[in-house]
């Protein structure tokens, strides 16, 4: 086996993850960290001499600056080439430009007003400025938190991405090296840190993101804990920029919405609406070879200037095109989040990134995977709306339609570009088919004049969880139905309950025929005992010519006797059955039964992923009756059905 070639003074093999520089004399390669050459300094070296060659040939030769307006400062300054973005000349000209005021499009709000319900009702289409972060639920370090403090919490050895602003080029360096640069009396360059994500560091404990970003986030609501793909961490960034740092016009990855908070210093945002025309111009500009020589703000109708000062939080919606100038040394915190309000725009931005061949480093991690997870959850949301006979908000219907189109295209693309991000437990074709079917149902409901119904978020989530649990149990029952087994006491109990419900709606002749046909199929001894017990009582009760009140009392009594019989048959379940029977309410004679109408929510908050939802049957408070035990599965449902019999008997005609 061939031995790997060794390099550098450390005599180590080549490591693609570490920056290296070649000596122009001996032609050996050296790690920048071993010979004290930073990656961003290497571009300034014209002829490099390693430590060994330096002793014989003298120090390395540096490039000579010939201009201040080009990324390559060695180009002759003959006035023939235009100014490029990020250079010192560009920054001076930018500061001299005039722009429409950001007040024309900025929504000034109190943090307590920025709620999910507000954004779902009024939309999230314009940037929002909030001047008191506490009202947003945002928690950050104090304003005297320094760059050295960042190093202390994150660790000086962490390798970070740094932008050389004058060249608009990205390089890597250790955080400790950036801190040293930041505090140096003379900064040879303008360096900017905008992508330090610190969720996996001690500094994460100092920051709580805004409530709105947490509650609406797809990742927080839909990403399962057992996902094969690593969870994207994009909610906690620390931005450290020196004066005159500049980031050219861009749309945040995946069309994510953004929150920014300036801890100290000042930033200037140049904001452009994501209209179809502006997005088309942006894509054309982004793909042009002379992009850095054209100021995109001049290509659109309006580019708004918004100054964000210390203590201000800015929320930028999906797809807004923006550039950022750091007008004085600044530390800011921010984060990105995908959400349900602008699904179509998010997908459009992602497809634009693909067409522009954006490197994976600058795209939302596993964007397609999160879309599959979202589609699976939104399918349940649409089913619940249909079952409630009311429509979800229009933005959600449009978003699901856009999602269906995208999922179909991605599935077709898998044939020629196999790079699947479809989660293992998702059947993609079936999911797309079911989503399409639900949209068709909703369109039909819409044509019939059915509209959205108001409801509270908590009620909707409880109902959603109950329905999904029931649907899952039904699926499991169907899955196991192929293996025949003797009916349990609970099965017989449920069968009798259904039979009583049917009797309340049929005549005595129909009742006798149906009852005999149904229970002739039950062959176990316990079934026979249960049948004789309840059937004789019910026949007697139905044939007596009592008044309605007397009949109701006797029916209630006989059903209670049957409940007691079933409790005695289920060994070990008495205590939990007693605890759950208290939840079934039978209205007294003359009392109006409580009707359980349910409403669909106007502001459909994201239902949590099953792994993040509370248990469907939380254990009852430990006491003498329950001893902390959970009731057996299905027992609560069966007994609540008996309560339903009594309710129905008060307002449904039945034959005696």
UniProtKB/TrEMBL annotation:
Residues 568-585 have a biased composition (Low complexity). GO terms for molecular function: histone H3K27me2/H3K27me3 demethylase activity; histone H3K9 demethylase activity; zinc ion binding. This is Lysine (K)-specific demethylase 7Ab. Belongs to the JHDM1 histone demethylase family. JHDM1D subfamily. The keyword Repeat does not apply. The keyword Zinc-finger applies. Keywords: Chromatin regulator, Dioxygenase, Iron, Metal-binding, Neurogenesis, Nucleus, Oxidoreductase, Transcription, Transcription regulation, Zinc, Zinc-finger. Residues 452-492, 565-644 are annotated as: Disordered. One of its GO terms (cellular component) is nucleus. It comes from Cyprinus carpio carpio. It holds the Pfam family JmjC. Residues 198-354 form the JmjC domain. It comes from the Eukaryota. Residues 460-471 have a biased composition (Basic residues). It is found in: Nucleus. One of its GO terms (biological process) is brain development. InterPro entries: JHD, JHDM1_Histone_Demethylase, JmjC_dom, Zinc_finger_PHD-type_CS, Znf_FYVE_PHD, Znf_PHD, Znf_PHD-finger. Its cofactor is Fe(2+). Residues 5-56 form the PHD-type domain.
């Amino acid at each position: 086996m061939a031995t790997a070639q060794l390099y550098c003074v450390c005599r180590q093999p080549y490591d693609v993850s570490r920056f290296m520089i070649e000596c122009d004399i001996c032609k050996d390669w050296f790690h920048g960290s071993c010979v004290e050459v930073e990656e961003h300094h290497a571009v300034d070296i014209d002829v490099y001499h390693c430590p060994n060659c330096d002793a014989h040939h003298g120090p390395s030769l540096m490039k000579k600056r010939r201009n201040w307006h080009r990324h390559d400062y060695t180009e002759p300054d003959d006035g023939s080439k235009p100014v490029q973005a990020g250079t010192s000349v560009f920054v001076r000209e930018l500061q001299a430009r005039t722009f429409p005021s950001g007040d024309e499009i900025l929504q000034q709000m109190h943090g307590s007003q920025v709620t999910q319900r507000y954004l779902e009702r009024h939309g999230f289409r314009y940037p929002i400025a909030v001047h008191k972060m506490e009202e947003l639920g945002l928690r950050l370090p104090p304003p005297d938190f320094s760059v050295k403090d960042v190093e202390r919490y994150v660790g000086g050895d962490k390798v970070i991405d740094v932008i050389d602003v004058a060249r608009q080029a990205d390089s890597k360096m250790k955080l400790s090296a950036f801190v040293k640069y930041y505090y140096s009396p003379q900064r040879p360059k303008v360096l900017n840190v905008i992508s330090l994500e610190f969720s996996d560091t001690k500094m994460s404990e100092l920051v709580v993101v805004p409530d709105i970003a947490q509650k609406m986030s797809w990742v927080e609501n839909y990403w399962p804990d057992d996902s094969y793909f690593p969870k994207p961490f994009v909610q906690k960034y620390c931005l450290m920029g020196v004066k005159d740092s500049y980031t050219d016009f861009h749309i945040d990855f995946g069309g994510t919405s953004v929150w920014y908070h300036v801890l100290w210093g000042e930033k200037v945002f140049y904001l452009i609406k994501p209209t179809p025309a502006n997005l088309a111009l942006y894509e054309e500009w982004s793909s042009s070879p002379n992009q850095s020589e054209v100021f995109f703000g001049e290509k659109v109708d309006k580019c708004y200037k918004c100054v964000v000062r210390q203590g201000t939080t800015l929320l930028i919606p999906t797809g807004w095109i923006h550039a950022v100038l750091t007008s004085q040394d600044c530390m800011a915190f921010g984060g990105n989040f995908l959400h349900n309000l602008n699904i179509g725009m998010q997908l459009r931005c992602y497809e634009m990134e693909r067409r522009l061949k954006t490197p994976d480093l600058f795209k939302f991690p596993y964007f397609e995977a999160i879309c599959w997870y979202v589609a699976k959850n939104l399918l349940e949301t649409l089913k619940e709306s249909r079952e409630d006979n009311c429509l979800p908000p229009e933005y959600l219907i449009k978003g699901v339609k856009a999602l269906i189109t995208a999922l179909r295209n991605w599935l077709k693309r898998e044939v020629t570009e196999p790079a699947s991000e479809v989660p293992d437990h998702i059947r993609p074709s079936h999911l797309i088919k079911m989503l399409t079917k639900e949209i068709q149902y909703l369109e039909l409901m819409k044509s019939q004049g059915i509209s959205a119904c108001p409801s509270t978020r908590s009620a909707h989530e409880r109902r959603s969880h109950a329905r999904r649990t029931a649907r899952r149990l039904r699926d499991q029952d169907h899955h196991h139905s192929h293996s025949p087994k003797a009916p349990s006491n609970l099965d017989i109990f449920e069968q009798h309950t259904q039979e009583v419900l049917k009797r309340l709606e049929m005549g005595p002749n129909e009742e006798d025929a149906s009852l005999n046909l149904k229970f002739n199929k039950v062959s176990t001894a316990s079934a026979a005992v249960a049948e004789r017990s309840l059937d004789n009582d019910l026949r007697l009760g139905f044939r007596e010519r009592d008044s309605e009140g007397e009949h109701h009392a006797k029916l209630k009594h006989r059903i209670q006797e049957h409940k007691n019989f079933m409790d005695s048959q289920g060994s070990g379940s008495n205590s939990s059955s007693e605890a759950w029977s208290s939840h079934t309410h039978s209205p007294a004679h003359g009392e109006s039964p409580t009707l359980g109408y349910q409403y669909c929510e106007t502001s459909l908050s994201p239902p949590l992923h099953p792994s993040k939802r509370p248990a469907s049957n939380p254990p009852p408070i430990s006491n003498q009756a329950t001893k902390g035990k959970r009731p057996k599965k299905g027992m609560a449902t069966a007994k609540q059905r008996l309560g339903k019999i009594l309710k129905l008997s008060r307002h449904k005609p039945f034959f005696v």
